[in-house]
Amino acid sequence: MKKLFAFIAVLLLSVSAAVASEGTEKADKAIIVIDMQNDFVEPEGVLCVAGAKPTIPAIRELLDYGRANGWKVVYIVREHRPSGLDVDEPRVPLFTDGKPGYCVPGTWGAEIVDGIKPAEGDLVVAKFRNSAFFNTQLDLILRRLGVSTVILAGTQYPNCVRGTANDAMSYNYETVVCTDACSAKTPEVAEANIFDMRNMGIKCISLEEVKENYK
Q1: Tens digits of per-residue pLDDT, 137-184?
Q2: Could you tell me the CA-to-CA distances from 90 to 24, 43, 103, 133, 169 in Å, in that order?
Q3: Phi (first) and psi of residue 73, to 5 degrees
Q4: Residues β-bridged to residue 37
Q5: 155: left (phi over 0), alpha (psi -120 to 50) or beta
Q6: I need a labelling partner for 24 at 20 to 30 A (CA). Which of 64, 146, 157, 199 fits?
């Protein structure tokens, strides 16, 4: 009897979810742009990633391609309170002893870099840790849209790109890392992480391969 009630409950939840989604925007693919903010991209940024700025043209091209094909674009941004109360423990010192911290809302460092600003209809989701899925609404939004494939762009490989890719795979999304549109501090760091992610089963392919394989 308990199993029957559990089955009915799941069925009702599925039906209500379908009704709630009826008539809402749909997209089977989404580009996830990770942490392309001034504090991570520009040389004056608090945590500048050396390889990030050179990827802007590739990210812009990927965005143009995705929008032309009806893909959803979701920008993931770091946001932290000025006190550093919600920051990762190792980075607390960046917020103490008079230091300004990084990616504080309303500051230049928190803004998405020029050249790839969000367009009308794009979404922006804030996060507090490496993965764009950790304690955010990203999974909820993607499922409501009907997304089955995510294409990742942004910075940086060993932290936020890799953390997001691993969680996306864990949530059963087809996970694609566009290697021309992602970055790390050095090419060696990038290659090491690409090697690891490929061995996990995550697709790490070039922008041209994305265009060849995904419409």
Answers
A1: 999 999 999 999 999 999 999 999 999 999 999 999 999 999 999 999
A2: 41, 22, 15, 20, 26
A3: -115, 125
A4: 112
A5: beta
A6: 64
Burial 144-163 (b: 16+ CB within 10 A, else e): ebebebbbbbbbbbebbbbb
| Nearest-10 Cα torsion for 93, 94, 96, 102 | -150
53 closest CA partner among 207, 182, 191, 165: 182
CB atoms within 10 A of CB 196: 15
Q: Return the HEC string of the chain.
A: CHHHHHHHHHHHHHHHHHHHHCCCCCCCEEEEEECCEHHHHCCCCCCCCCCCHHHHHHHHHHHHHHHHCCCEEEEEEECCCCCCCCCCHHHHHHHCCCCCCCCCCCCHHHCECCCCCCCCCCEEEEECCCCCCCCCCHHHHHHHHCCCEEEEEEECHHHHHHHHHHHHHHCCCEEEEEEEEEECCCHHHHHHHHHHHHHHCCEEECHHHHHHHCC
| Model confidence, pTM | 0.88
Other C-beta atoms closer than 10 Å to the C-beta of 130 total: 21
